[in-house]
Amino acid sequence: MSADQPRALITGVGTINPLGSTMAETWTGLLAGQSGIAALDQEWAEQLPVRMAGQVTADLSEHLTTRELKRMDRCGQLALVAAREAWQQAGTPDVDPERFAVVIGSAYGGLGSTLEQDRALASGGPRRVSPHTLTRLMVNGPAAWVSIDLGARGGARTPVSACASGAEAIVQGAEMIRSGAADVVIAGGVDASVNDLVITGFSQIRALSTRNSEPQLASRPFDGARDGFVLAEGAGIVVLESEAHARARGAVVLGAVAGGAVTSDANDIVAADPAMQRRVMQKALASAGMQASEIGFVHAHATSTPVGDRLEAQAINAIFGANVPVTSTKGHTGHLLGGAGALAAVVVVQALQTGQLPGTANVEALDPEVNLNVITENAHTLAPGSAPAGLVNAFGFGGHSVALVITAS
């Protein structure tokens, strides 16, 4: 980021996830060490090898109209709830619609509607298929619905980069601000793919934990006994503004996206390349004009897979050393797929605001190959005078690597 480019300030955050339907509920749950992961008691899950997940338990009819619930896939519904919260916190900025954009990423978009309507067609014929099918299954649906709801005419984009989608959306949104293409951007990620097909698919490659008898202890990033991640759903959203726009209207500034980077491993469709994980962090620091010593803590991708956590730990250690505080909140929420990196960014903003960092749940004995300062206490107080910046990692199948640098202001 050059000195003459506008900064991408953060003026609002929102989330809905297995821990809560607002940022306040989520933050309280994180600092209390709570878990949003539970057993799946639906009939469709009875024969699955994995019968647990992190599901949003909030009644969405309390947030959305009957018409919105009918027309949108659950993925779009979650994105809209989180975006409205972020927009309200930002003070509902008065912005030229042509200078107002939306960038919301997703890994699977309306896959739930795709499966539902395919089964309706198979069991009942064409007349059973909803007329809203095509618009519900679109991966760009969440971005489109948020742009329609809030009147954003400066573009509605949808990065699709597996579990890095939400973090990549925030990078894209910040770049729009810095380039002068927009004054305000709503950015983030969402997924709602807790279903039999996705659970079975991940189970077939042994990516999911099989601790069905103890779901709240199943997601255990960096723990020596981890055996896979726990699938979850939810959304994380931030409101980004140019500094000139935010200052002119007297906005309360929560933080800033100081830098970000997106790389591709060009290595393997599933296996990560730790060299590129190191590279994306280096590029993010360079884009922020910062040194590794200026990062106060890292929110790791750390999904709780045996190989993935170890490789990321090595990459973090290579850049920051063994002493920087590291956390991953997926032990509390499960893995939100395309929403994961965006939720991590929201958590980092809140940590910088409060001086408290949520711990990594379920670490009973740190993996001896993880040479990091993994925070395990529920609410870790950041050292006074520590670097006012956090780094977010997000990685996805296909070799997608994203890193974000977020500062306090």
Could you name the key traits of this structure?
globular; two-stranded antiparallel ribbon; 2 domains; 409 residues; 11-stranded mixed beta sheet; Peroxisomal Thiolase, Chain A, domain 1; 34% helix
Give a verbal description of the structure.
This protein is α/β, with parallel strands linked by helices. The protein has two domains: 8-248, Peroxisomal Thiolase, Chain A, domain 1 (3-Layer(aba) Sandwich); 259-407, Peroxisomal Thiolase, Chain A, domain 1 (3-Layer(aba) Sandwich), CATH 3.40.47.10. 34% of the residues lie in helices and 20% in strands. The chain has helices at 23-31, 66-71, 74-89, 111-124, 133-137, 141-150, 165-179, 196-204, 243-248, 274-288, 306-320, 330-333, 340-354, and strands at residues 8-16, 37-39, 52-54, 100-105, 156-157, 184-191, 234-242, 255-264, 297-299, 325-327, 356-358, 373-374, 379-381, 389-396, 400-407. The strands form three sheets. Strands 5-4-6-7-1-8-15-14-9-10-12 form an eleven-stranded mixed beta sheet, with helices on both faces. Helix 3 packs across helix 6 and helix 10 crosses helix 11 (306-320). The relative contact order is 0.19.
